[in-house]
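[recover] target loaded
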């Protein structure tokens, strides 16, 4: 059982193995996003900061898509799931960001939570079938294949970057700052 910090987020292990450490940091970043979005209504999730059109609701939907893309589509070589499979990406390459305003807070949170749960399942399968060195099932256009290790590091970076955005947006909504 992971130790929780004062905000209720699971702390990464201080002396864990490589897989446990990477998964610990990814779960910490996921929990940080959940914390930044906690308790907000539709208006709070649709708020923007400064000149950016980025919203916390859009961020939840975007990260749900990113979770599905990297863990189900790329790592497990599965077809995109809904709602992603039905999107006309050529008509709107940022569909997940733009369409989030049409979703309720409950729909956005559920979509993200379901994507995270599926990602955890795909990760556990990959760890059992080759560990961190396991290559993804989908080959990139240039012939390269990322490993599970690379995907986990990329996802930590993805969340950390967007959590910085989430800090600014949440502060603009209700003044809440900090981790």
């Amino acid at each position: 059982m992971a130790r929780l910090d004062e905000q209720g987020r699971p702390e990464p292990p201080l002396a864990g193995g490589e897989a446990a450490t990477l998964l610990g940091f990814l779960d910490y970043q996921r929990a940080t996003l959940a914390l930044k979005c906690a308790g907000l209504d539709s208006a709070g999730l649709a708020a923007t900061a400064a000149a950016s059109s980025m919203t916390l609701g859009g961020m939840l939907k975007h990260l749900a898509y990113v979770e599905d893309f990297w863990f189900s589509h790329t790592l497990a070589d599965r077809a995109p799931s809904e709602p992603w499979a039905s999107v006309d990406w050529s008509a709107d390459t940022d569909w997940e960001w733009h369409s989030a305003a049409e979703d309720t807070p409950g729909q956005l949170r559920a979509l993200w939570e379901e994507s995270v749960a599926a990602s955890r399942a795909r990760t556990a399968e990959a760890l059992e079938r080759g560990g961190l060195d396991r290559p993804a099932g989908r080959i990139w256009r240039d012939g390269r294949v990322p490993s599970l290790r690379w995907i986990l590091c990329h996802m930590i970076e993805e969340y950390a970057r967007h959590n910085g955005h989430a800090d600014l947006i949440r502060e603009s909504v209700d003044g809440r700052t900090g981790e």
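[recover] notes: Residues 50 and 169 are 9 Å apart (CA to CA).
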